[in-house]
Amino acid sequence: MANHINFTSTYNPNLEAWGGNETFDPLKMNAMFSQILGNIAAVESSIPGNIIDVRNFAPGDGTDQSIQIKAFFDSAQEGDILLFTPGHYKVVKSGWFYTFNGKAVTIRAHPGAILEVSDQGLRFENSNHIEVSGLTLRRTTQAGWAKGRTGIYVENSSNVILQNNDISKFTDGIGVNGSTSQENPSRNVIIRNNKLHHLGEEPIAVRTNLAFVIISQNDCYRYLGDGILIKATWNVFVTTNFLHTPVLSTDADYTTFTAGQQGSNVPKVGGGITCNNEGGETGARSLHIHDNSVIGTAFGVGLIGFRGAFVTSNFFSNIRNSSVVSVSFLPSQFNPNDESNHIFVIQGNYIDSILRSNPTAAIEARTNNGIEGMDIGVISDNIVIPNGNHWGIIADGNIIIKGNYIAKAGIAMDLSNGVVATSNIIQPGFVTTNPDRMVSINDHVTFTSNSISGKGTSLKIRGSNSVITGNRMNYDGNWWAVHFDNANRVVENNIIKDNVLLVSSSATGRYLFGSSAFSNGKNVVIDVVKDNNGSVYQLVNDLVLTGPNSTRWRVTVDANGNIKGTKV
Question: Where are the extended beta strands (E) located within 102-227?
């Protein structure tokens, strides 16, 4: 017999139940929809795989139904669907309320179905199929930081989908651990469109030998740990998630989320998206973080010890405690085995405002020569507006920095040890009484075809062996446009050539400062300068060139920044 919904009864939607003069009757309408829902349930109950309705076991009236819900879970055979229909199902039990071990499990819930647990939630182990969809799962009381109370926990299982759930008041919302073998990882995990909130630590944490993981469209808020934590996971896609409104140390209920704990390890604010090796795991591989919105958190994205990371097209706003996007190889509690970083791309992100009072970086990246010997990073096409006395980009190592827009930063760029920076636009910095430098160039940097405007020193040269060519600088300050910073540093073998420096009419500073017995003759400066009176000079530091009308001139700059022209 074919399954279908019968609309031929007395109360059907085609107005057979009402005469032309009959008014609307809410009782008849309720009866009609009850019949429709009953027909839907009849269809569902006849689908192969056996749908088991929780109402056959528990009343859903908010009383303690621990025995009935356990019997409900116990009744499921391989392939059955456990269905939560609307109601409040409360269970009381210390530890995990229920563990599914070695069984394919499907749990679905209709809107209005609430499962309340007194301690830990649902645990799944050693399965080849797990689905939990549409369930509102909450703990009776708020679990605090580091208290190990998880809503949904999956271990050593593949083909997992957790979607459309509302999970709250645990330590972690969703935790997924993979297999014990790198050669045979757990795989195919989807965590999608969940609402995860009021959590003592992470809304989502995936760890240990997992492959092909999608974390997408989740709404995470009111939490104290990392927003999304990734460890030892391969081929990961973290896309279109919304992380916002974390727990703050200034909140009235902060001690509830910390469980009254204090100390330097207790977070002061919930974080963003993290990939690290804190427990000594291997690094994540092929990690894609794309199109997420991260607002008001401690940090945006933190990456340590990975192989292939792509941070693209994300929106970050009002980051509070540290760098917005950070790539680091430094050994620390988050990278105890000193895992190296291998190949990253940070592209097309928009960073708007950093709330921390002390300077930090919008984007901070370092590479380290690992065993592959082919480490490279790309930072390109980002819009960076810190709106404070912060660095725009700090880069150290083999990193290409291209096509970024930076404005309202204390220091736009700080570059070292192999960085190539080209075609970036740097607009006036964060306004202070004494503006800082716009760009710091340390050792072995290539800086070419960039545009710099502002009151801070356009270029501060703090190291050696850099090539600085073809840049446009519009200086509007009262210190100096280019500064050789010799204090406790060796500044030599730098080539500064074919740049154009325009000095605004309001500028009162010098063009070049820092030439001394320690740097004279050790750096090459050949630039064109148009001063605030409109006069054009060819600025040469300790070189002989052909000047106007073929007259030979030696143009030098003394330690006070004064230009001296001597006919030779």
Answer: 105-109, 113-117, 120-125, 130-133, 136-139, 150-155, 160-163, 166-168, 172-177, 186-192, 195-199, 204-207, 210-216, 219-223
What torsion do the CA atoms of 368, 372, 373, 378 make, to the nearest 10 degrees? -60
**Which tens digits make up the pLDDT trace of 483-528?**
888 888 888 888 888 888 887 777 777 677 765 555 555 676 766 7
Q: Tokens standing for 421? A: 């920076």
- 8-state DSSP, 56: G
pLDDT of residue 3: 40
pLDDT, position 505: 75
Q: Which residues of 105-130 are buried (b: 16+ CB within 10 A; e: fewer)?
A: bbbbbeeebbbbbbbbbbbbbebebb
Residue 114 and residue 62 in contact, taking contact as beta carbons nearer than 8 Å: no
Please report which confidence band the pLDDT of residue 307 belongs to, taking 50, 70 and 90 as the band edges. Answer: confident
In this structure, what token pair is assigned to residue 275? Answer: 């990939």
Neighbours of 188 (CB within 10 A): 16
Count other C-beta atoms under 10 Å from residue 239's C-beta.
19
CB atoms within 10 A of CB 412: 33
What are φ and ψ of residue 379, in 5° steps?
Answer: -125, 105
Does 246 have pLDDT greater than 60?
A: yes
Structure tokens at 348: 């097309």
Phi-psi sector, 37: left (phi>0), alpha (psi -120 to 50), beta: alpha
Average pLDDT, the chain: 85
